[in-house]
Write a structure and sequence with these properties.
The complex is a heterodimer of chains A (247) and B (251).
Chain A: E1 10-12, H1 22-44, E2 54-58, E3 63-67, E4 81-82, E5 94-103, E6 110-120, E7 128-135, E8 145-149, H2 155-162, E9 174-175, H3 185-194, H4 204-226, H5 228-237
Antiparallel strand pairs in A: 2-3, 3-5, 4-5, 5-6, 6-7, 7-8, 8-9
Chain B: H1 6-15, H2 20-35, E1 45-49, H3 56-62, E2 66-69, H4 82-96, E3 100-102, H5 125-132, H6 156-166, H7 168-171, H8 189-192, E4 196-198, H9 201-215, H10 219-228, H11 234-243, E5 247-249
Parallel strand pairs in B: 1-2, 2-3
Helix pairs in contact in B: 1-4, 9-11
Classes of the chains: A alpha+beta (247), B mainly alpha (251).
């Protein structure tokens, strides 16, 4: 993963993680397919129609790109999903949903090394309204999970100008929950509907609730894997008998 | 294909609320017939049912094993129209007569109300097949590549099917429990609709270079912008998001 202290010496790197075994590569492919299928299902039953995310897998380096319009010829520019629930309706906005995935250190579970959820006002993605970013290993000093929003002059911009660092609102990185507890795509979809920024299919809230539950379970399981001692302690407090694997 | 379970699915489709279970049945059946029509009992099909010469009397006289509804009855976004009522009736007739009912398909833009699983007779499959490539409900992605054992004389669709079975990386995944069974058979339609392409180092590098070119920046410029979190354009920001995992420092 990149460290950007000497930008003049950057180059393309073929390998930054170990080559995956065929079975591990297949597992990554399977999980990426399920992951993208879940997003398709969520979006197409809430704020979109016919969104079909695709994936490009680089098994030699354990990476997988997922997004709309992603292909072997285009791994760099995903397309946004039009926010419309009727075939000929004019989209109320364009939601970019893009991920770079890999397997976790154990090689068993899918992990996002990056995620990007952005709302644009145009299909060309020139007018950004806001974006939620997650970068597991940030390229700069800003939070791994953060939120940026476009806007005019206000208290924050004035204050930063007074402190000699003039910057627009969109350049502020609002922290949002860190690696584990960052907002989910479900949260962004809910925001779009509740704030009347997107129309929704009938029954969207039920779909959202189901998907959100899956997300929470997945994140919780991941948290337990990273902090098994804390999880065991909590379970023991609740009366469970927990035994360490090497005990 | 709307067979025995077809009527329920059709009613669901009309209301735009098909259950996943209903779709799974249909997708599997469609997929099976597509791959082996004769082996699945589809001897012949009455094309374009509902229009022109494809009338009710021909249905009685010919007793085909499958009925292909003319695509004009499966147009998108018109709930409650006469076409929709006709569609429902034709599905009922075919099911009652024990036929496979084959419906046209609409592209994803048509919306969930019209995501009928589609199957065509062999003679007329090609144009619909092309549409299937973009359907979220297509059981397996279609590739343009051809298998080595294809003959140039083979019909295009046969070549495509051969390619499907050959190009494992694009279409099939190995099944750890039963190598003879495709993973695609176990997928939900939403998963099966996801195209996964496999790339090597050279393609990744070419992809990175294309992306940089489209953003009009060099790798070093982009890295500098990332360090400051001030990108020259939204496109540059996106390109960095996508390609930064594959760049590193060379000292």
């Amino acid at each position: 993963v990149l460290a950007v202290s000497a930008p003049s010496e950057l180059g393309w790197s073929g390998s930054w993680s170990p080559r995956l075994s065929p079975s591990t590569a297949d597992e990554l492919q399977r999980q990426a397919r399920v992951f993208a299928g879940d997003i398709n299902e969520l979006l197409n039953n809430t704020v979109a129609i016919g969104a079909t995310l695709s994936a490009v897998l680089d098994p030699d380096n354990g990476r997988c790109w997922v997004g709309l319009g992603i292909s072997r010829r285009n791994i760099g520019i995903p397309r946004p999903v039009p926010l419309a629930v009727r075939p000929r309706a004019r989209p109320t906005g364009y939601l970019l949903v893009a991920h770079v995935l890999e397997l976790d250190p154990e090689g068993r579970w899918l992990a996002a090394s990056k995620s990007e959820y952005a709302l644009y006002l145009d299909k060309q993605m020139e007018r950004m309204a806001f974006h939620y970013d997650y970068v597991r290993q940030p390229d700069n000093e800003y939070p791994a999970a953060h939120f940026q929003v476009a806007g005019g002059e206000g208290p924050l911009t004035k204050r930063s100008a007074r402190r000699g660092q003039s910057k627009e609102l969109k350049h502020f990185h609002f922290p949002v929950g860190g690696r584990r507890f960052r907002p989910s795509l479900e949260d962004i979809v809910e925001f779009l509907v509740v704030e009347n920024l997107a129309e929704a299919h009938d029954g969207w809230d039920r779909v959202l609730s189901d998907h959100r539950e899956k997300w929470h379970t997945r994140q919780l399981r991941a948290a337990v894997r990273r902090e098994p001692a804390s999880a065991a302690e909590e379970l023991a407090d609740l009366g469970w008998q927990v035994q360490a694997p090497d005990a | 294909v709307l067979g025995a379970a077809g009527q329920a699915a059709a009613v669901g489709l009309r209301r735009g609320a098909v259950t996943e279970g209903a779709f799974l049945v249909d997708v599997t059946r469609a997929s099976q017939i597509f791959k082996n029509p004769a082996g699945r009992g589809v001897r012949d099909a009455l094309d374009d049912f509902g229009t022109g010469y494809s009338s009710l009397s021909r249905l009685v006289n010919l007793r085909p094993s499958a009925l292909k509804i003319d695509r004009s009855f499966v147009s998108p976004g018109r709930p409650g129209t006469p076409s929709e009522a006709m569609l429902e009736m034709m599905i009922a007739i075919g099911s009652r007569l024990g036929m496979d009912v084959i419906a046209g398909i609409e592209t994803p833009g048509a919306g969930p109300a019209c995501r009928l699983v589609v199957l065509a007779t062999w003679s007329q499959a090609e144009p619909i097949y092309r549409e299937l490539r973009t359907s979220p409900w297509m059981p397996t992605p279609i590739t343009e590549t051809h298998a080595p054992h294809s003959s140039p004389e083979d019909p295009p669709k046969v070549r495509q099917l051969q390619a499907l079975s050959h190009d494992r990386r694009k279409v099939f995944l190995p099944d750890s429990t039963d190598p003879r069974k495709k993973v695609s058979d176990r997928m939900t339609p939403a998963e099966a609709a996801v195209t996964v392409e496999i790339v090597g180092d050279a393609e990744v590098q070419a992809g990175v270079e294309r992306a940089l070119k489209s953003a009009g920046v060099s790798l070093n410029e982009l890295a500098e912008q990332a360090r400051a979190s001030r990108f020259s354009s939204e496109r540059a920001r996106l390109v960095w998001f996508m390609v930064s995992p594959v760049v590193s420092q060379h000292r």
